[in-house]
Amino acid sequence: MLWLSLHETITRNHQCRYMWQLLIKVKQFMAVASPFPGSQAVAVL
What pTM was computed for the model? Predict the structure, then answer.
């Protein structure tokens, strides 16, 4: 499950002081995480 991987990897024990820092990490994770095997990652601006 993508959301569970996101939670375990990024949001559970983050040390970001500001929300915008956490959102950058989430966007980076989502850019490289693939919800479907074999699908291409999409760049996040």
Answer: 0.68
Residues 14 and 25 sit within 8 Å (Cβ to Cβ): yes
Token pair recorded at residue 25: 């990490």
Count CB neighbours of 4 within 10 A: 8
Helix, strand or coil, per DSSP, at residue 18: coil
Instruction: Please give the Cα distance from 33 to 40 (Å, whole number).
Output: 9
Q: Name the pLDDT band for 1 (thresholds 50, 70, 90).
A: confident
Domain ranges of the chain: 1-45
Closest CA to 6 of 43, 38, 24, 33: 33
**DSSP conformational letter for 41:** P
